[in-house]
Write a structure and sequence with these properties.
- The chain is mainly α.
- It has a domain of about 50 residues.
- The protein has 4 helices and no strands.
- Helix 1 runs antiparallel to helix 2, helix 1 runs parallel beside helix 3 and helix 3 packs across helix 4.
- It is globular.
- The model has no long low-confidence stretch (mean pLDDT about 80).
């Protein structure tokens, strides 16, 4: 139940903070919930979509970017263990 509330909260952020229209949010909500084959939970996808929309991609292009990012193998996404810090010396 908590994850459903959090998912709705994240989708509301798309409208109130990222500037997506109500129709766009309804469509994207449905599309995210259809992404059952992804390695991430819907709430995580909604959080990612918020950043994509905030960066300026809208609608279908934002969802396409989300799908590409969500399908990337874990080794292709930076983590605290693999991301180089600008102040760290090369290994």
């Amino acid at each position: 139940m908590h994850s459903a509330v959090e998912f709705n909260k994240q989708m509301t952020f798309l409208k109130t903070q990222a500037g997506a229209s109500g129709k766009e949010v309804r469509t994207m909500t449905s599309d995210i919930l259809k992404m059952k084959d992804m390695q991430f939970a819907p709430v995580t996808l909604a959080k990612g979509l918020y950043y994509i929309e905030s960066a300026g991609l809208r609608g279908a292009k934002a969802l396409q970017g989300l799908q590409v990012a969500a399908r990337a193998p874990p080794s292709a996404t930076p983590t605290s263990r693999t991301r180089r810090r600008p102040w760290s010396a090369p290994s």
